Amino acid sequence: MRLINTEGTDCDLICNRIIDNISKNTISNKINHPFSKAWLWEQFKMEFKSYTGLPFEYTKNYINENLSAIFLYFMSDIAFLNCENLYKEGVAPSFDKGLLLVGKVGFGKTDLMKSFEAVMKGYKPHHFKMVSVDDVVDQYEAIKSPQDKIDFYDYYNRGTILFDDLFSEKIANNYGHVNIMKELIMRRSRKKLKTHFTMNPVEGYEDDPKGNLLVLESFYGARAVDRLFNMCNYINLNGKSKRV
C-alpha cells in the first residue's frame, strides 16, 4: 500500500508541505451547509429512533470520542481535521473524501449511518445510498445476461454509496469467481466517486489503522487497498456498543 513516507528530515518537510497544502485546499473548498449543528443533532436523534425503535443513548465521552467526527464531517466543520479518532499519519483528511468507519461488532455502525442516510435524503451534497456488501454479492450472483452485468456496474458506478460491513463478504461466484468489492473499489476510485464504508477491525489491529488496512491486502490486493485508503477518511470508533 503506497503511503506517504515521512522518514528522514527532507522527506518529512516535503510531506508536511504536501499535507498542509491539501488541508488548506480542503478548508477553502468546504461547503457551507444550510443547517445548523443543533438541527442536525435533532434530526439524527429522530431518525435513529425511527429506524431502531429506541432513543439514542449517549454519554459525553461517547460523543467526543466517536460521534463528533462524523457530525463535523457532515457539517464540513474544520474542527473535523483535528479529531483524535481521525487517522492522519502520512495522509491528509479531506471533505472531498468519503468515510471509512471502523468499529467492533455491536458498536452500531449500521444504525448510525442508516440514520444519517435518512437525514441526508434529498440533500445532494451529502445524499448517499447504503447497501450491505453481502447484498452486493447476491446481486452480482443473480446476474443472468450481459445486459444485467452492464446494469449492475452502471448502478454501482454512480452517486455516493456507503458499503456496509466491508471485508465480511464472500467471493462472488457467477460463471467464475469474482472479488466484486475489489472491482467496485477500483472502478469508483477511477471515477473519483465519493464512497463510504463501514467495517469491523481485523482482530489484533483494532487501534492500528495502517496495520488494519495492510491485512486487507491479502483479500483485496495492494492496489485496491491503496485506493481505499486514499478514497476515505479513516475514523476509528471506540467501544463495543452505541448503547452506553
What are the segments in which pLDDT stays under 50 over at least 5 consecutive residues? 1-7
> Any idea what the CATH architecture is?
3-Layer(aba) Sandwich
Tally of helical segments: 9
Q: Work out the strand percent.
A: 5-15%
In percent, how helical is the residue content?
40-55%
Mean pLDDT: 87
Order of secondary-structure elements: HHHEHEHHEEEHEHHE
Instruction: Supply the number of structural domains.
Output: 1
**Terminus-to-terminus distance:** 36 Å
What would the principal axes of the Cα set say about the shape? globular
State Rg. Answer: 18 Å
Q: Tally of extended strands?
A: 7
What is the CATH C level class, in words? Answer: Alpha Beta
What structural class results from the helix and strand content? alpha/beta
Which fold name fills CATH's third level, the topology? Rossmann fold
Strand order of the biggest β-sheet: 2-3-6-1-7
CATH superfamily: P-loop containing nucleotide triphosphate hydrolases
For the biggest sheet, the summary is: 5 strands, parallel
Brief overview, please?
This protein has nine helices and seven strands, in the order H-H-H-E-H-E-H-H-E-E-E-H-E-H-H-E.
Task: Explain this structure.
This protein has 244 residues and is of the alpha/beta class. The protein has a single domain (9-237), classed as 3-Layer(aba) Sandwich (Rossmann fold). Helix content is 48%, strand content 13%. The protein has helices at 9-28, 37-52, 60-75, 109-119, 133-141, 146-156, 180-190, 209-220, 222-231, and strands at residues 98-103, 129-132, 161-166, 172-173, 177-178, 195-199, 232-237. It has a 5-stranded parallel sheet with strand order 2-3-6-1-7. The protein has a two-stranded antiparallel sheet with strand order 4-5. The protein starts with 8 loop residues before the first helix and ends in a 7-residue tail after the last strand.
